[in-house]
Amino acid sequence: MRAFDLAALLRSPLYSGVREQAMRLLKHPDEARALLREAASRLQGAIAPGGPLTAIRDEVSTLIRMVTATVNRTYTDLPWQTLVAGLAALLYLVMPLDALPDFLPLAGFLDDAAVLGFVLKSIRDDIRRYQGWEEDRRPRSGP
Asked: Model's pTM, two decimal places?
């Protein structure tokens, strides 16, 4: 079996098409919200104990919340490039046919995990800023 080549995938017409679709989705907030709900549902199905997305579950959940808050215009500090990259990675997660189809046991989510991991690493500073914003908005309990 050939090793998974993330660099080749990110240069591929497939991923380029996903980025284009993400940019189009941002012009239609209701469709973007539907995708985000599907991504959240898909994430739950892919994080069974020992599943390939278990290690990045919390970060992907944060990514979904961050993109949702941006689409809903409650969070306005997300750079455009980060928004597109995050939405594209989530779109890639929900695509039934990608580099490794998800119906293949375990292997089907490996490319999703690789793409998500790469995007999460590249936008980590924006995720941390968002987490700070989220923390500031949480109600504080009194003494």
From this structure: 0.78
